[in-house]
Amino acid sequence: MALKIRKNRAKNPPPTCAVGTCMQVLGKAWTPNVIWYLSAGPRRFGELRHDMPQISAKMLSERLRDLESKGVVERCVVPSSPPSAEYGLTELGLELMPAIEAIVAVGKRLKERMGQAAEAA
Amino acid sequence: MALKIRKNRAKNPPPTCAVGTCMQVLGKAWTPNVIWYLSAGPRRFGELRHDMPQISAKMLSERLRDLESKGVVERCVVPSSPPSAEYGLTELGLELMPAIEAIVAVGKRLKERMGQAAEAA
DNA sequence: CAGGATCCAATTCGATACTG
DNA sequence: CAGTATCGAATTGGATCCTG
User: Fold this and answer.
1) Which of chain B's ends, N or C, has fewer CB atoms near its CB within 10 Å?
2) Rounded distance, CA A82 to CA A74, Å?
3) Is there a contact between A72 and A92 (Cβ–Cβ < 8 Å)?
4) Structure pTM?
């Protein structure tokens, strides 16, 4: 019988109310954590890894580049010896803080309430 | 803007955050939308589908069962003829609202700011 | 140490079809 | 209408190795 080619999937870009717009930024693993740890001020790659012991180098650099390309995070090279880079929130990034804070607050309540699994970072 | 004014990096990283706990609930596709649309009051399956025209029946019922199993959403059978079911937020679900609202608020700002893709509601 | 490249198992989610 | 079952494409994110 003939080869059956599947119809192309619609693959709609994220959905309906404005949550999609925000979740496109915050929705991936570790993203809110990264933003959270940057919220106190610029931080270096290794510091962030230390903040989140479970994250892999790949994940972290991937997320940082994602966020940079979205204008949420800014990478600045610090002239030192050896020169190193620091990551910080942009203004756009700062605008996300209320949401992150709300997420953190609810997360804490959920954790108490459910008395559940430990989380690193 | 040239180089960002580099403030001293954070000496005191924020304490462990509970982001993961919350994102485990909100992190999957459509979840915040579903909660959002339930926040105005109980709603039936078909109504929710209508609220989110892009969601598939499978997704919706999957998300509803997820949320039910997490105690966020409650399914109650309404005695009518024929009897039908309604979904509503539990108290735990209501506790998530501040986060959802913050996400929606930021989403709207992002949309304005980026002047991007259209989204309804 | 900071980060990229590659490989791969697991999950996610859309389309489709089916049931009461 | 209200939902479930199955299939499979695409995405995810972890592990590992490689680089300057």
Assistant:
1) N
2) 20
3) yes
4) 0.84
